[in-house]
Amino acid sequence: MNVVLMVSEGQTEALGVGEEYLAKQSLGWVVTQYKMAIDRMPKVGEKVTVATRATSYNRYFAFREFWLTDATGKECVHVDSIWVVMDRNTRKMISIPEDVIAPFDAEVVKMIPRLGRPMRLAADEQLMEKQYRVRYFDIDQNGHVNNAHYFDWLLDALPMSFLSRHRLVALNIRFENEVQYHNDVISQAALVTDNQEPIITKHRIKMPDGEVATEAECHWQPVAKQI
Amino acid sequence: MNVVLMVSEGQTEALGVGEEYLAKQSLGWVVTQYKMAIDRMPKVGEKVTVATRATSYNRYFAFREFWLTDATGKECVHVDSIWVVMDRNTRKMISIPEDVIAPFDAEVVKMIPRLGRPMRLAADEQLMEKQYRVRYFDIDQNGHVNNAHYFDWLLDALPMSFLSRHRLVALNIRFENEVQYHNDVISQAALVTDNQEPIITKHRIKMPDGEVATEAECHWQPVAKQI
């Protein structure tokens, strides 16, 4: 995810509307949802290509795709994502300014593709949970938690016996509220079913006040024991 | 550190004595100490070269160097390290087998360079401390905690106000005892002095039973506030 995000940062900068350009207007792109399909993970030492496209947008939402291909051109991972522009002063979403989006040549649409809502944990569900404290190196230069760390929290809530025997094949994650430095967060997870494929786990990251920071749904396939 | 370690793994494999070769004999290389000098950290997007050399060894210890250079050939980071060979069955250090070390053409020496012991936290010292639990994604395929995570634990014990105003220029870290999955570790730190340069912090990672896993000493230089 870090590499994937660097590719879109590279594109916004190459088009002259990078982080610095937005920061001058006290604006920033914020991701609200990722939906990933993982055909296979790249191997250590493998050369892969990460590409991105600002596919379409409407007044408030921009739809961006990423894909990771191997040396033969075969797609290994595909990521759909939804982004909004935030006013850094009010911390509120604003309509996407024309100058910020125009250089991407994205299609103007009425509705951007819906990525679907992750399945939700029910109130009476049997939960696995672990607590995490945001660390200094989890935050980026704007003081926000790097998205990649949410994945660690989400997945680490599952037991080792599960993680070592399953391979993540799909992930749908929706960011609701921002986590801040030194917050304690609780990562909760529940297994929906393990007698049919794909195996599904539901996830939630909660803030100290009980507010939901993130919801996610993961799909898994069993693998031979790896660890 | 992840990239640096991949370079030495690449070398051991290229010489036919990689992890797989050692694993067949139930052996493994284990690092006991790193001493890093950081002239400057690479920038985002910068192309750097990481090189390594198995410099010298004696019966029990191998001395390996790493250096990271920029496009002009200038060295940005230099790492000295000391390694031993462990028998995976007994978890004990053994004398370095000839077949494992010969391909590196390293110099046989009586004494490998001493990297010095990190300054030690005193019993009565005013400590900053934070607790961490080893996460699933902290461990490698052998079930060991990836070295890079020790650095996170060590440095995150310092307050944000310090970390955001200082730049790490040197680090001496000694690994004493292995941390296992799901251990709780306590990362302790103390400021030696902040009225002279370099500013020095002393660090210790303790296991649940009080045993010391790691000791480290960090040198810092003040920088303009970054965050």
Structural commentary:
Two copies of one chain form a homodimer. Chain A is of the alpha+beta class. Chain A folds into two domains: 2-108, Thiol Ester Dehydrase, Chain A, CATH 3.10.129.10; 128-222, Hotdog Thioesterase (Thiol Ester Dehydrase, Chain A, Roll), CATH 3.10.129. In chain A, 16% of the residues lie in helices and 41% in strands. The first copy, chain A, has five helices and eleven strands, in the order H-H-E-E-E-E-E-H-E-E-H-H-E-E-E-E. The first copy, chain A, has helices spanning 2-14, 19-24, 98-101, 147-156, 160-163; strands spanning 27-38, 49-57, 62-69, 75-87, 92-94, 107-108, 128-133, 166-175, 184-193, 199-206, 212-222. In chain A, strands 1, 2, 3, 4, 5, 6, 7, 8, 9, 10 and 11 form an eleven-stranded mixed β-sheet that branches. The radius of gyration of chain A is 18 Å and the shape is globular. The model of chain A has no long low-confidence stretch (mean pLDDT 92). Chains A and B meet through helix 4 of A and helix 4 of B. Chains A, B: Residues 1-104 form the Acyl-ACP thioesterase N-terminal hotdog domain.
Total individual domains of chain A: 2
Strand percent estimate of chain A: 35-45%
Shape of chain A: globular
Could you tell me the radius of gyration of chain A in angstroms? Answer: 18 Å
End-to-end distance of chain A, in Å?
23 Å
**Total number of strands of chain A:** 11
Q: Give the quaternary arrangement of the chains.
A: homodimer
| Helical coverage of chain A, percent range | 10-25%
CATH homologous superfamily of the largest domain in chain A, by name?
Hotdog Thioesterase
